[in-house]
Amino acid sequence: MLLIDFELRGEYITLDRLLKATGLADSGGEAKAMVAAGKVQVNGQEELRKTCKLRPGQVVQVHGARVRVIAGA
Fold first, then answer.
1. In angstroms, rounded to a whole number, what is the distance separating the alpha carbons of residues 33 and 29?
2. What is the homologous superfamily of the domain 2-71 according to CATH?
3. In degrees to the nearest 10, what's the CA dihedral of 45, 5, 53, 61?
4. Comparing C-alpha atoms, which of 65, 73, 71 is closest to residue 19?
5. Where are the domains of the chain?
6. SS3 for 38?
7. Residues 54, 42 contacting (CB under 8 angstroms)
8. 41: closest CA among 25, 62, 55?
9. What is the pLDDT of residue 63?
């Protein structure tokens, strides 16, 4: 499984932007389609909200990859 630590620069990042920023989706449209299709989990629960706000400590899983959102410096 691919493990990615994503350093957050602000208060939050939306789910679709996180997928694009980490390279798990090639475009914003692809990211939104992945979420809409039920392929994405946040903290172990299926997430269908494309613009779900993610904050430090949350974990996103998709396509055998796990992204941990961590606080930026």
1. 6
2. RNA-binding S4 domain (3.10.290.10)
3. -20
4. 65
5. 2-71
6. coil
7. yes
8. 62
9. 87
Contacts of 29 (CB under 8 A, 6+ apart): none
Cα–Cα–Cα angle for 54, 43, 46, nearest 5°? 95
List, for residues 7-63, the tens digit of each pLDDT value. Answer: 999 999 999 999 999 999 999 999 999 999 999 999 999 999 999 999 999 999 998
CA 7 to chain centre: 12
Distance CA 3, CA 12 (A): 20
